[in-house]
Amino acid sequence: MDKLLPSNYLTPRLVLGLTLLLVFTGIVGWFKAKSQEDPSFPYRNGFIQIVNPSASVTQLNDVVVKPLERRLAKIDEINTIHARIKTGSAVIDIELKEQVYNTALVWQRIKDEVAPLGASLADSQFYVVDRAQDTQGIVLTVRTGKGLTADRKLALEVRDELEYLDVVRSASLVGDPGLELAISYSQERMLAFGFSPAEIAKQLRDANQQDSLGVLSQNLSALSLLPVNHLRNDAQLKDVQITTPDGSKIPLSTLADIGYRTAPTSSEQFWKNGQRVIGIALSLPPNQHNIADAGNTIKQAIAGINARFTDAPIKIEIFQPDWSQKRREGLVNSLIQSCIAICVVLLLFLSVQSAIVISLTVPAIVFSSLALFITFDGVIHQMTIAGLVLSLGLMVDNCIIVAERLSYFRSKGFTMRSALTHSVNELKKPLAAATMTTIAAFVPMLLAKGSVADFIATIPVLVIICISLSYIAALLLLPVLFVYFPISIPWLERWQETVTQKLSTFGYQLAHKTLQHPVYTIVAATAMLCTLLSLPNANGKFFPNANRNQIYIDVQLPLASHIETTTKTANQIAEYALQYPEVSKAMVFSGFSGPRFYYNLAQKPNESHIARVVLTLQDDVNPPEFSRFIDSNLNKQFPEILINARELGQGILLRARLS
Question: What backbone phi and psi angles, to 5 degrees, belong to 315?
Fold first, then answer.
């Protein structure tokens, strides 16, 4: 067999060995490489949260926001600054310019500008959130059945335990009600012992005084000690001795009931199907793990925690790894269907041997491209697979041209060796020019900057790799396969000849009729063109929908609305939505926008007038259609409230949703 190849040709075993090695690497990498659902982006969006409960809107604006905006204006990399101010707090949304990629340096400069102002305003607290774009793709609920206080205690333990996992970047509580130590007393007790609340408060402050520290010193070393009367828990508080007006001492527990409770003034709440719950939101580090393996690790950890209890208190509400796997499977099916379609088309128009050899070459190019992409630390996500699907139609061209040229020379009586020599020598330069031209068309996309370019960045990379390998495979691998696979299927070849004859006859008759009746031809062509132009327009989308059975409803009340009013309204909306059989679950995030469970949802913390309702639909429901339906009905049902129901969609929507 080797003697059939040109003398200057690479050893067939070397060609096949390298191909198999790349294909094997690509297959293994497909299951083990770093993967995630969507591409990650530089941290160009974030916000500064300012909290001062005693400050009015005017005070915050004049003393804090305006001076801070002037400081931030000195940073050229900032594109927009947008402030939202209300009594007691303010949020400054910051968006960096799209050409900025070293975002860590810019955010450090922002923190450096905030620090002096924070030091001079001791009564104001500043929080710079530079990773607001992290996707909290996993949301859990914690319900012990023993009340919110017990739920919160367990949620804190679970949060800390999950944060120890290598696959978890951060874990935070959702709808944390907070905790406070309450001292409840009756007026009768106060009167019986001759106390007033102010007197008890003063004695408790004295009992918890930490101004003076005890010091043990010897020579040049010193050890500071907390005072022994520092109160640390409710048990110590119950034993505090209160001095009565007559000089006697009694424990505080004699006067009042002491215990922990959730803070009644919590600014953010989380509800599920009408019941208040506490959640845990997990974010995974981008571009570092295989999301399927990470999901299994987290599920095993949750199962281990639930095994400690009779009734599993931890429930998974949103789980991004499962959605990532479904999207990946859908895109893989598209890739397989495209390969099958190419094989069918090749069998219709090419010889059996050419069709089968090309059909073997195309998957080899795909897996080899994937192997190179993974070797250079590439991450598999939906845009990676989209790049492979897009490349199929381009990578097959070089193989078809070489295969047809080989078949042509063989039909002219050339030996296999001579046909290979002539084909490769004739086509190597023209194919190189064509390949370079196609690559050049994708270079601008590769060099583009900005959020959209970041989203589709792997598409030009995969296309360029696939086209380059298709040129090499057409000149090296395909001839080897032609030599080693001299395939002939008589019945299929006869069928091909029949199809070819019918197509040729149809084409000849169509051309003959067209030339015989030019007027009719022009009239028919004009009629077809008018018909096409009269068809209704379809609203195309550059980015498709997310294909999740979830929609979300943004609710906005007047700016000064109380958190309880917002919560009540959002729960009414959720209750209304649950009346429809298409809805299986409703989650309400009140006082904030909820966890950022999808990559292009913006965060809006500490906003008492907003809420977000997330609906989980039945699997057979069309989310875009139902979102339009529920949006129309809700706006009729609640005309005084700003309501917007949407399906989850692809694309860069951060800028529009931050304001």
Answer: -120, 140
| pLDDT tens-digit series, residues 543-573 | 556 678 899 999 999 877 888 899 999 999 9
pLDDT at 184 over 80: no
Greater pLDDT, 166 or 534: 166
pLDDT tens-digit map of 604-632? 888 888 999 999 999 888 888 899 999 99
Query: Which residues are CB-contacts of 82 (< 8 A; sequence separation ≥ 6)?
Result: 92, 93, 658, 659
The span from the CA of 402 to the CA of 472, in Å, is 11
Model pTM score: 0.81
Distance of alpha carbon 362 from alpha carbon 368, whole angstroms:
10
Which conformational region is residue 194 in: left (phi greater than 0), alpha (psi within -120 to 50 degrees), or beta? Answer: left
Q: Would you tell me how many other CB atoms lie within 10 Å of the CB of residue 366?
A: 24
d(CA 589, CA 569): 11
- Residue 632: name the closest of 588, 592, 577, 578 by CA: 577
Between CA 187 and CA 382 the distance in angstroms is: 65
Taking CA atoms, 85 is separated from 66, 92, 575, in Å, by: 11, 8, 31
Amino acid in position 290: N
Structure tokens at 625: 């259609």
Q: What is the mean pLDDT of residues 312-331?
A: 87
For residues 396 and 56, give the distance between their C-alpha atoms in angstroms, rounded to a whole number.
Answer: 67
pLDDT beyond 80 at 265: no
Beta strands 249-251 and 314-319 are: unpaired
